[in-house]
Amino acid sequence: MPLRAATKDDVSLLYDMIVELATFEKLEHEVVISREQFAKDFDNKIVHGFVVFDDEDGKPAGMVTYSYRYDCWSGRYIYMNELLVRPEYRNKQYGKQLWAAVAKA
Predict the structure, then answer these.
(1) pLDDT for 24-37, tens place per residue?
(2) How many angstroms separate the CA atoms of 67 and 24, rounded?
(3) 47-69: string of b/e by CB count within 10 Å (b at 16+)?
(4) Distance separating alpha carbons of residues 78 and 31, to the nearest angstrom
(5) 83 and 64 in contact (C-beta within 8 Å)?
(6) How far, in Å, CA of 101 to CA of 49, rounded?
(7) Global pTM?
(8) Are 83 and 95 within 8 A, CB to CB?
């Protein structure tokens, strides 16, 4: 399965991976947003994302979340929030694919 834009059906996966990343960084206590609020923010297009699935086993290998920001001097721009490639899927170019997807968004 390839990389694709996250959909409403992926919200729980994105949230779980955000918590997974925070836990890896020993910062899980800093994740204060609830799953429900994250889902609302996703529905309201405050946060966007991409998910990538492993070519071999089809399981979720990584994700990236991003949002749009605005600067009065340069206009709208993209801010990459979180990027995770699960350890067992690293060195397969998934991180590069996720970065490229955000750059094209």
Answers:
(1) 999 999 999 999 99
(2) 23
(3) bbbbbbbbeeeeebbbbbbbeee
(4) 22
(5) yes
(6) 9
(7) 0.91
(8) yes
